C-alpha cells in the first residue's frame, strides 16, 4: 500500500496561491451606479452606445444591453428605484440575426 505524504497546511495553501493564475484585469473595478437619466446620457454621449435589448430580471429590475457601432457592449441593471448599475462590459459585440425556425 502506498502512503500519501502529508504537507503542512500553510505550505499547501502557499503552493495553491502561487500556482493560481493571476486574476484577469476587469475594465470596471467595481459596479458603477448612477441615476437612470445620467447613466443613459453617459452611455449614449460618452460611449456612443444605444439600447440593443432588454429583459425583465425580477419584479423591480430590468437587464439592459447597450452596444456601440465599434462593438463595445455594456450590461446594465435598471432598478425601479430609478438607479442604473453597470454590471459587465466588453468588446467585439456581434448581433446574431433571428432565424426562421421552420
Structure description:
The protein has 102 residues and is an alpha+beta fold. 22% of the residues lie in helices and 36% in strands. It is built from 2 helices and 5 strands; from the N terminus they run H-E-H-E-E-E-E. It has helices at residues 9-19, 36-46; strands at residues 32-35, 49-58, 61-68, 73-79, 83-90. Strands 1-5-4-3-2 form a 5-stranded antiparallel beta sheet, covered by helices on one side. Strand 3 (61-68) and strand 4 form a beta hairpin. The longest helix has 11 residues, at 9-19. The radius of gyration is 22 Å and the shape is globular. Mean pLDDT is 78; it is low at 1-24.
Name the poorly predicted regions.
Answer: 1-24
Portion in helices: 10-25%
> What is the H/E string?
HEHEEEE
Number of strands: 5
Q: How would you classify the helix and strand content by structural class?
A: alpha+beta
Task: Summarize the SSE layout with pairings.
Blueprint: H1 9-19, E1 32-35, H2 36-46, E2 49-58, E3 61-68, E4 73-79, E5 83-90
Antiparallel strand pairs: 1-5, 2-3, 3-4, 4-5
Give a short overview.
With 102 residues, the chain is α+β, with helices and mostly antiparallel strands.
Amino acid at each position: 500500500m502506498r502512503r500519501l505524504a502529508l504537507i503542512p497546511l500553510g505550505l499547501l495553501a502557499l503552493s495553491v496561491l502561487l500556482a493560481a493564475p493571476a486574476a484577469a484585469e476587469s475594465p470596471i473595478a467595481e459596479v458603477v451606479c448612477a441615476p437612470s437619466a445620467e447613466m443613459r446620457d453617459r452611455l449614449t454621449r460618452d460611449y456612443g452606445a444605444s439600447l440593443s435589448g432588454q429583459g425583465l430580471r425580477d419584479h423591480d429590475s430590468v437587464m439592459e444591453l447597450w452596444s456601440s457601432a465599434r462593438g463595445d457592449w455594456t450590461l446594465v441593471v435598471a432598478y425601479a428605484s430609478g438607479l442604473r448599475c453597470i454590471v459587465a462590459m466588453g468588446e467585439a459585440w456581434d448581433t446574431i440575426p433571428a432565424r426562421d425556425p421552420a
